[in-house]
What does this fold into?
Amino acid sequence: MTELNQGMNDSSAVIDAVRASAPPVVVTNDAGYPLGIAHHKDLKFARLSAREIAQFTGASERHSGTTILHDPESFVRLVNREAAPGTVVYADDRNREIEAVIDETEAGETMGWRDYRFKLEARLSWQLKAWLKLKERQGQVEFAEFIEERARDVVEPAAVDLQEMALAFEAVQDGQVKAKKRLQDGSHELTFNLETEVQNVTVPKEVTLQIPLFEGGDRLQIKALIRYRIVSGQPVFFLVFTGLKDQLEEAFEALVQVMAEKLEPMLVRGEAGGALYDR
It folds into this structure.
């Protein structure tokens, strides 16, 4: 029995020695994609990080990461320069983004890494963002100052008419609204009581702007209705944009069509999804 036990101990020692000396083994799935590493010494399995996967596959020096672009022409130049045989461009209508996955899986080939990308974000222009702030109520002086500052964005009514309205509001800022009247052309006339006189100010029904909807985009015409409320004898103003949602969708669709014409890789509709190791 003693000899048998000694033999078993010797065998265990040999097994332990083999485990200790055996290098770790990368465990892959059926497609050959590395999932983790098995350590023979303690018979443990550890899932690999993205960096470790790159090291084990010899791909640590490959291109990766996502570059965010705001200019369509820059997006076209970079994507066409970096495009590979499997590159696919995804047009995401919901998020108004166009994303190129350079290392997408090529048909009939090993799965791509899907983590080398260029993304074009159709961001609202700073001009549109500025005007959208007027959806919130503004006092007459703040409203007048904004109109004066951004009069160059307005196509109709004439800039000189808007500036006259702005100056008139500044002149009657200490007065109280005595009466209001809707005119035949849809504009409104507000009558202010001042200490020594009564003064009328005409407010147009709407403004037509000519501004880019997206950064780097062409200037387009959009309309906004001018609305007001009388609060404690003072008018407060706000804008109601008409058809803006449809115009944004149309502008993005026009951008997608331009990209489809200028980009060399295939363009499809949908979201790009995550990188291979994020799935």
